[in-house]
Amino acid sequence: DGDAGMAGGVTPPTYSGIRVQFGVVPGGGSRPAGSVGEFHQWFGEGVYALTGSYGTGAADRGTSDMVAVVFADGAATSGTPRENANWEASDVRDDCVARLRRAGIPQEVVSVAEASERCFELGVYEHSASAPWVSKGGRAVLLGDAAHAMAPFLGQGANQAIQDGYCLANRLASAHAGELSSKLLSPLQSYALLRRAPVT
Question: Under CATH, what is the fold of the domain 14-126?
C-alpha cells in the first residue's frame, strides 16, 4: 500500500479550456486611493477579474498592483490550448485590456491592466479525480486537493475540503472504537462514494 502511490502512477493533466492573464504594476499607484491591502473582484460578460496590491510599502521592496483576468478559451474546443510561448508582454497586455473593455469591466480595473509592465498568460490544467481516494488496505485516505484539486479562482478548494472532513468524520463515527481495525474500510469507501459526485 503506497509504494507506487495510491493511483499506481500519475495521469497527465487535462487542459480545462480556461485561461488566466496576469499583469503586475511594480511600484503600485494604478489603483484607487485607499485600496492598498484590499482585493476587489469584478464580474463581466465571460470574464472574472481580481485586482489587488501587495508588498511591504518599504523603500527597498515597495508595493505592487496586480490584475488577474480569468476567461474561457473559445479557441480550445479540441482540448488543446492555444500557445503563447513567444508572446511579448505588450501582446498579453493589449489582449487583456481589450478583453476587459469588451466585458464591461470598470476603468479602475482596466487602468491596472494598462499600467502593467509584467504580463503573462497561463492555461489552467486539471487532474482527473478518478484515482482511488482510499488505499486498498484502508490505511490511507485522501481529501481536499489531494483527492480533487480545483482551479484556484473557483473559491471552492477550502470549502470542499471542509465538507470532505465533515463527511469523513461522520462516516468514521459509524465505526465503533473497538471494531476500527475490522470495520474501517467500509466507512472510508462510503466517504469516497458520497463526496466524489459533488467535486467531479
Answer: D-Amino Acid Oxidase; Chain A, domain 2 (3.30.9)
